[in-house]
Amino acid sequence: MKSELELDIRYYETDQMGIVHHSNYIRFFECGRSDMMQKAGLPIEKIEKAGVMLPVVSVECHYKHPAYMGDRIRIVSSIDKVPMAKLVVKSEIYNQDGDLLVTGEVVLGFIDALTRHPVRCPESLAKVIADSL
To answer: Which residues of 77-99 are buried (b: 16+ CB within 10 A; e: fewer)?
Structure first.
């Protein structure tokens, strides 16, 4: 499963040097991930309404080059295997010139919304991912 989303860098996402603050890339990962799920027809809200929450277990981010005020970035999000107990979403962010800015990975768990105990990946999500691989 793979998806792309383009966003313009806004002033408030930058520091005094006009460079995107490092913490915003984690937000960009989330924007890409949410957009991918929406495009696949299974937005996070739908999964949560079905009683399963997806807490972030870990985040990994590797900075290659900065993004600047006025840049248009392309967030490439991908899932390359059907999850069982955790969902691994890989991300790459490029600028408008095609330069790779950041690579990363977010690992999400699955928990029951009421008990907060771990559960397996919902079948609906597993099927959507399996059908796209």
So the answer is: bbbeebbeeebebbbbbbbeeee
Task: Enter the DSSP assignment of 9.
Answer: P
Mean pLDDT for the stretch of residues 119-128: 94
Mean pLDDT computed over 60-88 = 97
User: What's the half-sphere exposure (Cβ side, CA atoms, 13 Å) at 111?
Assistant: 12
Is 8 one of the catalytic residues? no
The domain segmentation of the chain, as residue ranges, is 2-132
**pLDDT-derived band at 43, boundaries 50, 70, 90:** very high
> Is 2-132 a domain of CATH 3.10.129.10?
yes
Across the range 74-94, mean pLDDT stands at 97
* Catalytic hit among 8, 15, 80, 99: 15
